[in-house]
Amino acid sequence: MSWTLILEQALNGLQFGLMLFLLAAGLTLVFGIMDMINLAHGSLYMLGAFLAATLVQATGSFTLGVLLAIPATALIGMLLEIAVLRTLYARDHLSQVLATFALILILNEVVRIVWGSDMALSTPAVLSGPVELLPGMPYPSYRLLIIAVGLAAAGLLYLLVAKTRIGMLVRAGASNREMALAMGVDIRRLFTLVFGAGAALCAIAGALLGPLFAVQVGMGESILILAFVVIVIGGIGSIRGALVGAVLVGVVDTIGRAFLPHFFGLFLPPQFASAAGPAIASVLVYLLMAVVLFVKPQGLFPARG
Amino acid sequence: MSAHRIIAFAGLAAALVLPLALQAADQSFYVGFASRVLIWAIAASSLNLVLGYGGMISFGHAAFVGTGAYVSGILIAEGVTSAWIGWPVAMLASAVLALAIGAASLRTRGVYFIMITLAFAQMMYYLVNSMKAYGGDEGMNLPARAVLGFGFDPGNEVTFYYVVLAALFAVLYATHRLVHARFGRVIVAIRENESRAEAIGFPVYRYKLVCFVLAGAAGGLAGALLASHGKYVNPSVLHWTQSGTLMIMVILGGVGRLWGGALGAGVLLVLEHLIAEHPIPWLLTLAPDYPQHANLGVGLVMLAIVLYAPQGVAGLFSRKTGKEHG
After folding, report:
1. What is the pTM of this model?
2. ipTM of the assembly?
3. What total number of domains does chain B contain?
4. Which domains are present in chain A?
5. Chain B contact for A106 (CB, 8 A cutoff)
6. What residues of chain B lie within 8 A of the CB of A102, using their CB?
């Protein structure tokens, strides 16, 4: 186990964490502003990936396809918000869980009917090779692109939320919805916008992770639950919390999977280490969540005081 | 005798004669299917205790069913074949898990609680997936069903059906007694208004936790029966969509009604079976592969119920929100 290997896995963790952040950012605002649980957020991630795969095929260009998939997914997200989710804000959480669970079932089948169970999306040829990051440490250039895009998106989102008027309204809505309403903020329109932005972030994550994982029906569900873990750790409604939580979850998950079996092998008999290592590694982020909950039940950066 | 009771006894009578009627009609295959429906009825009824009476939106109930299934399955695989040991141990294991998950997640409320129960259930899913010694992601075949003794042959489908039926009625009777006792009144009071219950002086957290643990134990029983029924355990029992399906069963059958879970499990599983195994000819000509997309129908129906008939979905819950705003 060399330092370059650890550094490589840490970069992989950062890359996964940044993509998790793109999902969690939209989700945490939806929770924070409307106190609404949206299980179908992962379906937008799936739709973004399928749209990207289709558009990349149609245009013949990876960049163009992904760039077109982003507004398309945002549009679908906003339509979904206006048609279905808007009526759910005033409802209890049980109705929200059921309706958005129903949406997952519906969208999964719609994707299966339109596209089939999976689609091919490969890394663009230019970025298929590795770059030598440090002497003796090659790193896939596509993963570097993901890190760059993730950082850029996070930075842009930060500027949008922290420095613009719309961002101020979003923060006001997230920290105290009633007060924002009383001050005359049009929460309804604001929320359609936030939802569209969340869908766009989903599309970026789906399109970029598509070549690494697989573009298939159900791809949004396991990552959605990880995004929930991120939000619980970071604190509902907090963008900063989502960023910290996402990178923490991404790095802990990746490093744990890569090194925990080896680490256990240092002081445990090999047959036990090879069984316990992967088992503990797969539940590590959930244990992290439990610890955070125990210490800070409101998450690391609670948006509400 | 109230109408409610008459219906209950009619249901009991129908359940008692069902296997005999199926055998008489030469449809013995359906005895096994009926057992499966009853097992899911136990699982949904146990969720109903938390969701319907306790008002806790637990999105991880499949973890308790799955833990029960795995614990009893592992015991059988390791040679402890007695149901009288295996099933109580499975219930105990699920109860302990529910205690741990409940202790952490009941410190929070609202969307936090939903997400955390979901996340912990997913943790259990990954945990059994990584247990290579017990089949990993492929699941594990069991040599035989758990042994009952006293001359009962668990391999006989009719005998097993009556065992499952007895377990369902035991769970329903226990639930009935529980919700009509002081404990149940407090749990419902907490559901209706938690702050008020707390102000009166009830230890809200402890009541909710006990409710959560009892439901977990009953879920574990369903899991143990499920493992014996199919002689097979598989991680998909713990998958989060299974938790969602259990929730749909409870909603379909009636939230916070004693028979709700059983009714919903019956309706959903029979409908699923009909769509998959008995396609309607004229629908097939319109959409040749519609049986493969049954979930589209389930999703649309659920969405329509939630959006347009909220009273039918959760009358109890909407009454609660009404009070909060009023």
Report:
1. 0.85
2. 0.81
3. 1
4. 3-119+139-295 (1.10.3470)
5. yes
6. 298-300, 302-303, 306
